[in-house]
């Protein structure tokens, strides 16, 4: 059996933007598994020691203006724009340290730009125990996932890593843990997938502007290509997760994001259960949960969840 190819952050693999013209760091056949290692979102290469976060040492390839530290891109041989990228999420193992920012109402994550210092929680992550503990003695359960799994927009040029998009990116959906399969509309030939922004733990909404930000010691992703999802074209991210089927909506406000998530969920219920649109909406009113994915990244995210076995 061939060894699983591994991509580590470094020359030719580490970048802070999406760009369809960025050369692939690796090309694989559909169905291949790739092991990624990532820096934390801020490119930090040392744990926080209690000083100003901006003074921490970053990877030397960081330049001002870079977004999240991403590893990739991976080209999937034969993938074409308009198809669906299937991302099977295997083990996601956080690095041994990370930082999270729990801001007060008037001192949010980005308030330091205006001269205000955030409230900093410094976390020690014990992956084996499944916990993280901060300097105040608070212990939380970890449920690691990659905040960014995405592909570049079809438009040329560099694109920010901050806003999530319909073909993935900074989704920050905490349901996308190991054992999930994420389906993304492919915007460019080859797919050109990059990942990063690992989170050891995060609440729905990412309300303070950050989770427990950490690197990923490893994240195993199996990449495949489909023509569609259940015989239908795909317009927004959909995932099968341990929590059930998840449809993600993105919008300029929560109403728009919720409408997009529900539109995708009605399509999914129709495909899974042979239901008409009106019957799917009636079923959704009984069994589907709407959850705020994140409110921290220029646009808003809502995901609709259909729990396992909710409709039989």
Walk me through this protein's architecture:
The structure is a single chain. With 312 residues, this protein is mainly beta. The protein folds into 2 domains: 6-80 and 88-166 and 186-220, Acetamidase/Formamidase-like domains (Jelly Rolls); 243-306, Acetamidase/Formamidase-like domains (Endonuclease I-creI). It is built from 2 helices and 18 strands. It has helices spanning 254-273, 277-287, and strands at residues 6-7, 14-15, 26-28, 32-38, 70-76, 84-101, 120-126, 131-134, 139-141, 145-150, 168-170, 181-185, 193-199, 213-226, 238-241, 244-251, 289-297, 299-306. Strands 1, 4, 6, 7, 8, 9, 12, 14, 15, 16, 17 and 18 form a 12-stranded mixed beta sheet that branches. Strands 2, 3, 5, 10, 11 and 13 form a 6-stranded mixed beta sheet that branches. A hairpin with a 4-residue loop joins strand 8 and strand 9 (139-141). The model is unreliable at 100-116 (pLDDT under 50).
């Amino acid at each position: 059996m061939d060894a699983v190819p591994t991509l580590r952050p470094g020359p030719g693999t580490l970048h802070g933007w999406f760009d369809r013209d960025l050369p692939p760091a690796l090309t694989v056949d559909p169905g291949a598994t790739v092991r990624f290692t990532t820096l934390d979102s801020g490119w930090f290469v040392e744990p926080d020691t209690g000083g100003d976060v901006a003074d921490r040492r970053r990877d030397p390839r960081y330049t001002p203006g870079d977004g999240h530290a991403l590893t990739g891109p991976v080209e999937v041989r034969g993938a074409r724009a308009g198809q669906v990228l299937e991302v099977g999420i295997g083990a996601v193992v956080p690095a041994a340290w990370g930082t999270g920012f729990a801001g007060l109402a008037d001192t949010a994550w980005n308030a330091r730009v205006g001269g205000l210092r955030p409230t900093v929680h410094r976390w020690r992550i014990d992956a084996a125990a499944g916990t993280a503990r901060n300097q105040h003695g608070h212990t939380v359960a970890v449920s690691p996932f990659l905040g960014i799994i995405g592909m570049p927009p079809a438009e040329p040029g560099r694109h920010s890593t901050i806003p999530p998009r319909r073909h993935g990116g900074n989704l920050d959906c905490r349901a996308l843990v190991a054992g999930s399969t994420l389906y993304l509309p492919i915007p460019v030939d080859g797919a050109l997938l990059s990942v990063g922004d690992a989170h050891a733990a995060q609440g729905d909404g990412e309300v303070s502007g950050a989770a427990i930000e950490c690197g990923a010691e490893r994240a195993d992703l199996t990449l495949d290509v489909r023509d569609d999802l259940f015989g239908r074209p795909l317009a927004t991210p959909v995932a099968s997760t341990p929590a059930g089927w998840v449809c993600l909506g993105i919008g300029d406000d929560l109403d728009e994001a919720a409408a997009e998530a529900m539109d995708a969920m009605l399509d999914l219920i129709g495909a899974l259960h042979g239901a008409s649109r009106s019957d799917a909406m009636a079923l959704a009113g009984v069994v589907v949960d709407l959850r705020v994915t994140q409110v921290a990244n220029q646009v808003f995210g809502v995901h609709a969840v259909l729990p396992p076995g909710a409709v039989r």
